[in-house]
Amino acid sequence: MTTSGTILVIGATGTTGGRTAARLTAAGHHVRAASRRATPVPGAQPVRFDWYDPGTFGGALDGTDRVYLVPPLGDPDPAAVMLPFLRQARAAGVRRAVLLGSSAIPADGPGVGAVHRALPELFDQWAVLRPSWFMQNFTGTHMHARSIREHGVILTAAGSGRVGFVDADDIAAVAVHALTDDRAPGTDLVLTGPQALGYDDIAAIVTEVTGRPVTHQPLTYERMRDRLAGQLPLEFAEMLAGMDRAIAEGAEDRTTDTVQRLTGRPPHSFREVAERELTRGG
Ligand SMILES: NC(=O)c1ccc[n+]([C@@H]2O[C@H](COP(=O)([O-])OP(=O)(O)OC[C@H]3O[C@@H](n4cnc5c(N)ncnc54)[C@H](OP(=O)(O)O)[C@@H]3O)[C@@H](O)[C@H]2O)c1
Fold it and tell me: How many angstroms from the chain centroid is the CA of residue 234?
């Protein structure tokens, strides 16, 4: 694919978009880094973009031929704002779209599933990244990371269910491949790390790596929902607690070879990520 156009990275200040923008600029691509306040991103051209303000779409799309899509967060119907944007993007000359979805939501699923279903009709060149849960949930600003730092505990309704946790940097590496390779994947890609781990395993690894005791405290679905509902709308709290319950039932207990296949190297383990992001010298 030609490298003359601009790649618009939506969510460029976030966990996957930031890493994707960094990798693209390091490889010499021209990147427009979108966020609500046009926050500067090294090596990229910042642009103001808000899913809920269509007036920001035109400026973000000007000269763009490829786009990385992080959906509006916590919106139960992201298609309502994303599909008008994607139609405008196609009319403006965008030829390739790479959507960040989730392993938990297939094409026939709710929410971002509707955007997934529409993508192949809008763009000849497309991919949907469907990562499992992020390893950065334990190292960044996510509630698990905060709870680890503040209370030495991880609270879930996932029981002993296992998850193929994936490094956001590996997601970004796949995103770059999907955005810049001569051939777009033209499919969805379930992304995991090298092993499925339980939250007990995560707590044990964080304890070993940081030297500070961390435990996993399993809660019932109802207790988890009620705790989350203290900070989030009830509908969203129910959805998140429900995802934990699905994990307890084995829904995320899998690994795939996608990162290795697309990037040519194995995905990072949780221990590697914890050593990199939770220790000063790591
Ligand atoms: N965490 C997990 O374990 C996990 C697993 C699978 C899938 N996912 C999916 O990953 C997605 C989150 O991706 P992420 O972690 O890369 O993002 P993130 O770190 O949560 O950051 C969100 C990004 O979106 C931007 N943003 C927020 N509201 C916006 C709006 N109204 N208009 C435009 N931009 C907006 C933010 O920028 P500003 O605030 O600067 O505007 C930020 O750059 C979610 O869709 C989630 O379903 C997460």
Answer: 23
